[in-house]
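User: Hi! I have a protein structure encoded as tokens and I'd like to know what sequence might fold into it. I'm fairly new to this, so please keep things simple.
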């Protein structure tokens, strides 16, 4: 969910409002209202916590270590030229406005969530709360109902709205051939086994493996490449490797990912680019010997479209999002600016960003001591 920082922090409330709040007359049970939804105080607290985590991530960028809220004063920091507290406030408010916008658009399109799915989610999350796994949320005053609504139901609504536009029979349905082309242009299918020619001796010094081991690895990897090129499967090679090297599990890595994968070395990426589909090769990079096999991305694209694809980490929905997420976010940004809502200043004044910071700081300090 991409959110821009466009909103201003709440103004300090006046003395009269403070007196009303102090007397207990002010209703702080809700934070925002639209014609479609009343957003609870717990929802607002949740988003201040989510935005605080975003702020910690921002402050940890370009740093050798993560920002430690228990040891550093986050209120004195700046993020994107704003005081961190103001940045967190703006971020939380925009998250809430996007939530309300999605709710409005789903209602306008008569999109309904599966009540049984929501019930199951709530039961699961409630069990986490009951078991004490959600301590920080309880400390902040976020209930299992609120957590289910924002973390669970909202994500379902978001996906519903996206699918109603770009999914099957959507108003801007993405054709199968466009999904297939994007997949084949941007993804690669690979399998590899690597073996380091370096090891450590009894004194923990790095040394070369013995010549006998090197020869065994090179000989077997060459055999595996030949067999793959002749039609054997990667499962066949896994079985052979376990037998040849007398291990219980093959160390093979098999995946279908975006070609410019940050988890893959440049040498490995280049080797894959040089290979044809269903071809194998052997390479050595920096004293690490590789058996590399490239699958058929076109065959996988066909399976992806016809519903027989077995790789659950990449789906047609994954590709739709990669193609249209930016466009969808621009659409939501435009709708957010048109949203009519009421904001409860009393709620904002009671459940401040500073309150969230103080509770999280105390909670984290207690956790580290425990």
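Assistant: Happy to help. Inverse folding works backwards from shape to sequence: for each of the 370 positions I chose a residue that suits the local structure. Here it is:
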């Amino acid at each position: 969910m991409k959110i821009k920082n466009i909103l201003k922090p709440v103004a300090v409330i006046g003395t009269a409002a403070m007196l009303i709040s102090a007397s207990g007359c002010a209703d702080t049970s809700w934070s925002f209202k639209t014609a479609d939804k009343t957003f609870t105080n717990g929802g607002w607290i949740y988003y201040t916590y989510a935005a605080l985590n975003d702020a910690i991530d921002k402050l940890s960028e370009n740093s050798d270590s993560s920002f430690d809220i228990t040891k550093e004063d986050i209120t004195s920091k700046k993020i994107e030229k704003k005081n961190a507290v103001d940045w967190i406030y703006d971020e939380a408010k925009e998250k809430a406005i996007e939530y309300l916008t999605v709710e409005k658009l789903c209602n306008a399109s008569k999109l309904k969530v599966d009540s049984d799915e929501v019930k199951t989610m709530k039961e699961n999350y409630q069990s986490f709360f009951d078991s004490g796994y959600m301590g920080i949320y309880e400390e902040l005053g976020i209930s299992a109902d609120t957590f289910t609504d924002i973390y669970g139901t909202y994500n379902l609504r978001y996906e519903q709205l996206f699918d109603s536009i770009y999914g099957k029979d959507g108003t801007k349905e993405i054709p199968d051939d466009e999904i297939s082309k994007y997949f084949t242009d941007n993804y690669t299918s690979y399998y590899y086994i690597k073996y380091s020619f370096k090891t450590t001796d009894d004194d923990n010094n790095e040394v070369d493996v013995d010549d006998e081991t090197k020869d065994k690895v090179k000989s077997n990897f060459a055999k595996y490449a030949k067999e793959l090129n002749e039609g054997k499967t990667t499962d066949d090679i896994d079985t052979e490797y376990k037998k040849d090297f007398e291990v219980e599990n093959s160390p093979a890595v098999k995946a279908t990912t975006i070609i410019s994968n940050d988890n893959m070395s440049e040498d490995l990426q280049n080797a894959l680019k040089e290979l044809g589909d269903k071809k194998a090769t052997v390479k050595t990079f920096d004293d690490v010997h590789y058996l590399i096999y490239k699958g058929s991305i076109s065959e996988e694209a066909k399976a992806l479209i016809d519903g027989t694809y077995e790789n659950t980490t990449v789906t047609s929905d994954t590709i739709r999002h990669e193609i249209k997420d930016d466009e969808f976010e621009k659409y939501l940004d435009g709708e957010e600016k048109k949203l009519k809502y009421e904001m409860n200043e009393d709620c904002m004044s009671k459940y401040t960003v500073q309150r969230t910071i103080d509770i999280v700081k105390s909670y984290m300090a207690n956790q580290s001591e425990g």
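A useful reference point when you look it over: The chain has 14 helices and eleven strands. Feel free to ask if any position seems puzzling.
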